[in-house]
Specification:
The protein has about 150 residues and is mainly alpha-helical. The protein has helices at about 5-15, 30-35, 55-65, 70-80, 85-100, 105-115, 125-140; strands spanning about 20, 25-30. A two-stranded antiparallel sheet has the order 1-2. Helix 6 packs antiparallel against helix 7 (about 125-140).
C-alpha cells in the first residue's frame, strides 16, 4: 500500500496527462481523444424570423427551424395556410416529405418533429412520425444524447 503522505504518491496524483491539439493549449488526453473522433459540428443560424403574424405559431416555426434561408423561405411559403394546429401539422408534414424527397434529411426531420409535437397522443401518425424524425435527424449528421 502506498503512503498517501509520500512524495511519490503526491507526484502521481498531481500528474495530469496532457496533449496538444492543432497547436492549441494543452488539454487532458481524454478530451483530445474525444475531440479528434467527433465529426465536424453542424452550425445553426442564430436569430428570430417573422414567418407568421400569429406570435404562437411564429414562435413554433422558429423553434424547430435551423434558421437557414431555405427553411425560412419554405415556412413562409406555407404560413398563410396555417390557421390552427391541425393546419400546422398538415403543412409541416408536407414540408418534411418534400425535404426528404430532395435528400435533405435534417430539414425533413426538423419539419416532421415540429409537426409531431402538435399531434394528439392518440393520433396513430404520432409515434411513426416521431420515430422517422429521430432516424432522419441522425441520418442528417446530427447525433443526439441517445448514444
Amino acid at each position: 500500500m502506498t503512503n498517501v503522505d509520500s512524495p511519490e504518491s503526491e507526484e502521481a496524483l498531481n500528474h495530469t496527462p496532457t496533449t496538444t491539439v492543432s497547436g492549441e493549449a494543452p488539454v487532458h488526453e481524454a478530451y483530445a481523444t474525444v475531440s479528434r473522433s467527433l465529426p465536424a459540428p453542424i452550425t445553426f443560424t442564430v436569430g428570430h424570423h417573422d414567418i407568421r403574424p400569429d406570435v404562437s405559431v411564429n414562435y413554433q416555426l422558429n423553434r424547430f427551424s435551423d434558421g437557414s434561408a431555405q427553411m425560412v423561405a419554405e415556412m413562409r411559403g406555407v404560413a398563410a395556410r396555417i390557421h390552427d394546429y391541425h393546419d400546422y401539422v398538415r403543412e409541416l408534414t408536407a414540408l418534411s416529405q418534400q425535404a426528404f424527397a430532395h435528400d435533405r434529411p435534417l430539414h425533413g426531420a426538423l419539419y416532421l418533429r415540429s409537426a409531431e409535437f402538435f399531434m394528439f397522443p392518440g393520433d396513430p401518425a404520432k409515434q411513426p412520425a416521431r420515430a422517422q424524425a429521430v432516424h432522419q435527424h441522425d441520418a442528417g449528421g446530427v447525433r443526439s444524447h441517445r448514444g
